[in-house]
Amino acid sequence: QQPVQSPQAVILREGEDAVINCSSSKALYSVHWYRQKHGEAPVFLMILLKGGEQMRHEKISASFNEKKQQSSLYLTASQLSYSGTYFCGTEGGNAGGTSYGKLTFGQGTILTVHP
Amino acid sequence: DGGITQSPKYLFRKEGQNVTLSCEQNLNHDAMYWYRQDPGQGLRLIYYSQIVNDFQKGDIAEGYSVSREKKESFPLTVTSAQKNPTAFYLCASSIDARLAEDEQFFGPGTRLTVL
């Protein structure tokens, strides 16, 4: 089942902060975050693993709440280059903790940063 | 330079025709994936392959077929049975799909339009 992302769209001015949320109805083993510019391929940002630490990529960080089956992406002091569509991809796992090997992506959050 | 290539970038086909989309990677990755992206939507998994000579259906496999005869190649055929084939198709690869920390690398995509 597809994870749900919120909000659907965010408009910021340079330097402002934003939070993008990703919620799943299923138990998660990992959450992947990607950013896609219009007409281009998605680019990997970071992976959060069950039981793992909060991750960071430049001024972008993310958390993973296993109990709530949620992940949040935090964009701090946004830059023009942050504009794009952000996708979370969730991955379940079997009882032994091995990944099923496939991601289910959310519908995306469109982030627009203005000067 | 290592990477994933998809060809062609734009493809037009007449209704009722089969068409094959190419995906090649020289990253020595075991796993490869095909996604479909429709406007304003996330990525939906069509097929994936964890290893050469093996592949599994994703969430929307109907009307599509794949082969994985070589590690570096994972072509996707869109058959005439696919009722709504116009979309942006993305191919991806990863080192080992069994690993939850396995990042996916995406190709530039093929935009298919059925006339």
What would you say about this model in short?
The complex is a heterodimer of chains A (about 120) and B (about 120). Chain A is mainly β and about 120 residues long. Chain A has strands at about 5, 10-15, 20-25, 30-35, 45-50, 55, 60-65, 70-75, 85-90, 105, 110-115.
How would you describe what is shown here?
The complex is a heterodimer of chains A (115) and B (115). Chain A has 115 residues and is mainly beta. Helix content of chain A is 0%, strand content 51%. In chain A, strands 2, 4, 5, 9, 10 and 11 form a 6-stranded mixed β-sheet that branches. Chain A starts with a strand and ends with a strand. The model of chain A has no long low-confidence stretch (mean pLDDT 88). Chain B is mainly β and 115 residues long. Chain B has strands at residues 4-7, 10-13, 19-25, 31-37, 43-51, 54-57, 64-66, 76-78, 87-94, 105-106, 110-114. In chain B, strands 2, 4, 5, 6, 9, 10 and 11 form a 7-stranded mixed β-sheet that branches. Chain B has a 4-stranded antiparallel β-sheet with strand order 1-3-8-7, with no helix packed on it. The model of chain B has no long low-confidence stretch (mean pLDDT 92). The interface between A and B is medium-sized, with 27 and 28 residues.
